[in-house]
# Entry
Amino acid sequence: MLYSLKKQLSVPDIHLLVACADAQALKLVFSYFESMGYQLDSASDSGEVRSRLKDSSYDALILDAQLSEQNGIPLYTCLRLEHFSKPIILLVPDAGMENLPRYLNSGADDIVTTPLHLLELEARVLAAIRLSKAHLAIPRLSWEGIELDLRAHTVAAGGQPLHLPPMAFLLLARLMKEAPNIVSRAELQKELYGDSPPNSDALRTYIHILRSKLTEAGKPLLQTVPRVGFRLGAG
# Structure
């Protein structure tokens, strides 16, 4: 028998918005999540998503990556530009993970490829929600000219805004909390995914994105300690 991660972890009531143009995929998601005790609302296009967001508050969004606005910009990107801060997990048609950096840089917290593995989707949703709540305990962090506000979900480097995809933001927050100490790869993996890490090496992708963004901002502080982990060094 398949047991929900929500039940295993004693997670309280969670309200999700699921937006997908594929009626069959939407049916599968609803069948699984509602049977496990989640509260769900549905939407089939960007207009319905916006209408739902006006009327209700959600713990996370599960969005079809192909949903877009009338100008062709992906819906999830538009929501981030409008400062929507709740976790967004994308359903993507890709067979591999080669497009993961593009999705993360454009505003997604995580992705799940189709055809869907529903337990994996649940694990990623819960991990994103857990991270978004846990990091609010310490609202502001500062290290070597980098200022991070967890509640506002903003980062500034040398006084200039630094735009990070959500998971890279959370990764930076953990490294800033521990700086200049080393955070092991295993600890970072658990920070991002709890006890249900993905099979792919998504952490490597997030590290690459974060290192590139910091270097572009003139803050090449992210250091790899071979066979140990990562840390933020001094400027």
Q: What stands out?
A: The longest strand covers residues 15-19. The longest helix spans residues 118-134. Residues 138-232 form a domain with the Arc Repressor Mutant, subunit A fold (CATH 1.10.10.10). The chain has a mean pLDDT of 85.
